[in-house]
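Hey, quick one: can you model this chain's 3D structure?
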Amino acid sequence: MIEIEHKIVHFYGRFGDGASGVTEALTGWAELTEDLGYNVEIWSARGERVKHRLLRHIAHVGWGRRFALPMGLLWSLRRSDLVYLHEGWTLSNVVAVAVGRLRRSKMVLMPHGVYDPHMVVLQRDILGIRRALERWVLRSVDAVHVFYASEYVDVRLLEPRAALPIIAPNGGPEPESVETWTGAGDYFCWVGRFDPYHKGLDLLLEAWAELPKAPPRLILAGPDYMGGRVKVEELVERLKLSDQVEVRGPVYGAEKDTLLAECVAYVHPSRWESCSIALLENLAMGIPSLLADSVHAAPTLKAAGVVQLCDFNSSDALNRAIMLTANNHELSQASRQWMSDSGSWVAVAREYRLELKSLIGDR
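Sure thing. Here's the predicted structure for all 363 residues.
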């Protein structure tokens, strides 16, 4: 254990509200820095749906996601702390940056892809106030931690004077720690949150319906999101895909492992995405994966030879990609090897250690 006086705080007010991609990534980064020998805590408003041994509740004033303000930071932060803020477009981050500047703590923003232009246009912004506050946050932190260089392009589109980037992607599990893909089934698979527009499920199904031959079997599974699963079921019915496409609820544990391990390939059609931990978990299993060419991870993973890219706006492109991906054992072996060499949390830690030293080494 390294004796270090600095504390690394991961602040996300919604951490206790329920599991999500953000909470999963945050947990990964917190545990990684703890493994490197640092004193680490996760700070959040009170919530009981997600628990963690590093979690500490701090006082908030107000209500809801937008208006709960972390006033407890005033007496919790120290000058020697390094504070990671997660996501964006919340007043809690604005308050956290203001308190951090007052306490002279170093601050890093990890936006998790929320500055993608698709998301920026969805923000309700009266008189441009929210955008002005968000741009101030981006200028005021000491660094912006993005997962890929292309994500920082989105940051600069919103605020040209944003703090300099740290570029380090999420990690995933070691291949030896997860189930191994067998491809014993007869279906393609997608697992995730039923948010049809964000996750590109409408594009996937429309292209699936136009495949030149009878569409292969496809299983979509995951939790509902604001009625999204019903919309997907209705689209399956309208496109006359009921015989080929099965829509399931959430899957966990052994059921999820079996579903993924036996698929012929995994499809990931998101319109936008920063760094999907679910995709990294699938690569660790060795699942041949078909990835939308629109997501930030696409160029890196394609260059590594571990995914097949696809434009899901085109049924012809999907048809070609399906033939190249299904039961592709070479792709499976390459993905497992890449996760071991470069994609696991252990591998990510090797370079991230240097970023941490540069952030806190001058205190």
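One thing worth noting: The two ends are 20 Å apart (CA to CA).
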